[in-house]
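Sequence in, structure out.
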Amino acid sequence: MRNVLWAGALASVAGAASAQSRPPAPGDTLRLGRAAAIATAIGANLQVEVAKQQAAQARAQLVQAVALPEPSLGASFDGQSSPINTGSATGRTVNVGVAIPFPDKFRLKGAIGNSNVRAFDAQTRMVQQQIASQAARSYDSVLVTRMHRRDLLEARELAADFLAKSKARFDAGTTARLDVIKATVLLAQADNDLIANSRDVTNAESALNRVLGRPLGAPIIAIDSLEAPPPPGPLEEAEQMALRRRPEITTAEEQLRGAGATSRLARETAFAPDFSISANRDYAADAGTLYSLGLSMPLSIFWWQHRRGEFAETHHRELELDAVLRDTRAAVGQDVRAAWTTADVSVRQAIFIRDQLLPSAREAFRVATLSYGLGRLSALDVLDARSTLLDAQRQYADALAAASSARADLDRATGAPIGAPTATTSGARP
């Protein structure tokens, strides 16, 4: 009986331990900040995995390009009286040899392979930056819909307070019943806005879950909050940073560098000699091992065929990639200017609404509500002030989301490190 009890106790402890070590189910609530959302999105995106595998293929191709030549082994029966009568052979020869390409060909093939590897690594970074920007936008969408909901809840409280004051004035005989009806309609509109906002919150969470590779209906809690990010630095610094870091420019530069090595390799293939070393022994004649050192090189008698053929092809490929590089630099410069301008304007708008518009709208509504309670203003004045306040709150939330997303896009445009913080995460509310 005691053994049975001990077995049951051990089984329960093991079950508890396994339950604690078991990973959470896909539908469990996930709490994460912006940086964690970006990292999770990059890890879950299949396009990033495709780019990584392509880079791994380029590394394997580099190994093959600079691999040492393999020796060859050959054996033959010579002078047989019939094809299958090996005993009648007058010679039994064994040969071991290796062909060695012109040494500089290894260097050029290595240069081509390294350029391909760096180009594919740059493409991987480009995909990661695009996914990071998309994840940041989806995260901001969740934050702004929840910020709208917070403002709408406050608006409902204000509408309920206005209805209570309207009823009190109506009971005191200082206002018409129409004011009570307007206040009732105002409260109903606040409830309807909350219902519509619940749809926006659900859709934003579904979009973020999709980016993160989670079930669309899985609950998620965004622990960061929206706040006006710092203004961007000088435009000239952003442009110089982009020219150094953008993966598109790195890819174009590496492709051009690889094309130059390909042009030189084509010329060496047409003119440079290759070497061969071999050892040969005839066991039937009981002779010693004979060694040979050979040199072979192409005779490019019809040199104009090479000049018009592979030489011209590789040369025009270099010209093409040079034009692509210059066009890419121009496109990156335009992209940086557009992203910088958007970020600068968005941040200034968010700061202006926070420091000027929103406080004025709050004060106007406070005064209107207080004056209405004292019988000095009409319900129309209160409704107008409330509408102005709600519009200012909505503008502020949208401006914060736009500023945060614009800074994330500026990070992408300048090639900043992936997941770098673009704004503070404190949730102070003006």
